[in-house]
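User: quick one, fold this
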Amino acid sequence: MTEHQPRQLAFDFPPGIALGPDDFFVSEANRLAFAMLRTPGDWPEGKLVITGPIGCGKSHLARVFHLQTGARVIAASDLVDGPPPDGPIVVEDMENLPAASETAMFHLHNHQRNIGQPLLMTSALPPARWPATLPDLVSRMQATTVAPIDDPDDALLTVVILKLFSDRQIVPPPNLAPYLAQRIERSFAAAADIVERLDKLAMAEGKDISQRLAAALLDKPVDLE
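Assistant:
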């Protein structure tokens, strides 16, 4: 943990939520992806793609895999051709792979297969919707096993809201996260949006974050931009 990270806060987590490595919260929405991440020796051809919407925890899972295996983590947008390291690799945000990097990704894929080391990829989109056009790369990517992270259930959404408050170093009232989880769209983006808007509203009005303030915001959303 770096000195700039928010301190860990103690929460009463909803029933059925487990704490995985590096405080990754496991629920039915992400249980498959988390389980597959933990067993890279079982991945077909040694590769796996974790897919899911922005904010669902893909990067968090990439860090769990890094801690588990020592894997090098690379952004797809930064991928360049060259001698790859001899070990596990994570390539994040494959939907952002530049056209100029497709050959480098093809070589990396083959290198990992040849040395018997796992290749983990993350993306907001399934491989069939990636913009890659290099035929050999496309065929190999579309043959990769996909572990989706689904839209959050109420339990995971509650924990995500708690985490978002924690990231802002806010300790919300005990019942606020479940209250919000039951009243917003069931998505990671909606959770991020409500926490941001509630934080802005509280600062603009000089009030503490509360269920009453949240009720007012949900009844009549306020644009503070």
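User: anything notable?
Assistant: The chain has a mean pLDDT of 86.
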